[in-house]
């Protein structure tokens, strides 16, 4: 008789990644380092739930070209639609509106956690990923934007990027609003298509952007993206602005352009001048943050300053070939988001970065911290009848500040040593009947063996004094193991 029990295929849903210790530790280290920076600037942590009511997200879905898509949604028991948060900004807007009377104003908060997007997954594009945000709600001052920019630069440095490893490029959406006003573009749908087209310049090039300003674009897969259908004159003015922006036109040159006659553009230039002055006061030089008019940001809710963190360090893939990461974070001013709930305009500005993306960028730039993926010291179960004693040894090591575990499989000595090696354990502790009787323990330095296998010759003096295996008194066990562990850090 055949076994017809249903056995599902072991597979992860597309766009959802399994993460092991190395990835999780790298992400945790980034979050902890950046959190310390944000708190030192006076920002308090906030955590909101994974779900928000779908009507709280409104028109600010990540992909409004596909109605009812872009988020993972379900109905609550009262038939209200809820959706997994697609970013950390919309929940902040809801929280601020709900608690505005009791919050300190301005309200300065940072947050980190998973977000979910119901979009087509692809290389480097996931449906679930970790974001880390910092926002100021309740200040319309350009200096609040400058502070976010400066703090973002400090946070990225704390996360592991070297000095100058990323530059915060900033501009002001009001300049582009002046361009569109001068071009006679007033339709909301057209504006959004233009914004998203300009934001794709790096990927599509000038020709691709021009197609999206016109009838639309057919990509290599045969998929057609409808364009803004601007007139030739309107599209030409937008492209003139784009050409000046790509050329890195300075503030004063842009201010004398035709589109600068619009009052909204003049307002944008005044705000940018205040941001530049504030950054100077904060001690932030142009290597860390500078004006770049090509920064647009595709999301519709930005109303003023916009900024992106552009990676500057060399990055290599696993085969040693150069790769470009580009932006590792961004943000801007969104003065209308809270007003969706209250009807009252409450200014806000913030910065966000993808933790997983930054961790991948740091790895590609060779900025991983040594010893970050270390396993615990493994106490070998040499004699199965002495398991309680082995647990006492592991507890003694942990009390002394050394991560430790007892091997709990059923394999012999060789397999246990292989297990410790796969865990990247710095050392293994072996105590047999003779050691128990003599009050000793054998300590095997696994790091030394790995270093010798790789032909490493640095720190030769220490390695010459460092036995690969030694028998020590039980009273000295913690100190000896501690020395091996510390040497690996």
UniProtKB/TrEMBL annotation:
One GO biological process term: histidyl-tRNA aminoacylation
Enzyme Commission number(s) of this protein: 6.1.1.21
Pfam families in alphabetical order: HGTP_anticodon, tRNA-synt_His
Gene Ontology MF, one: histidine-tRNA ligase activity
Catalysed reaction equations from the record: tRNA(His) + L-histidine + ATP = L-histidyl-tRNA(His) + AMP + diphosphate + H(+)
UniProt keyword annotation of Hydrolase present: no
CC terms in the record's Gene Ontology section: cytoplasm
Domain Aminoacyl-transfer RNA synthetases class-II family profile: 1-376
Binding site for L-histidine: 87-89, 117, 131, 135, 297, 301-302
Keywords: Aminoacyl-tRNA synthetase, ATP-binding, Cytoplasm, Ligase, Nucleotide-binding, Protein biosynthesis
Family the UniProt entry places it in: Belongs to the class-II aminoacyl-tRNA synthetase family.
Oligomer status and interactors: Homodimer.
Protein name as catalogued: Histidine--tRNA ligase
Source organism of this protein record: Caulobacter mirabilis
Gene responsible for this protein: hisS
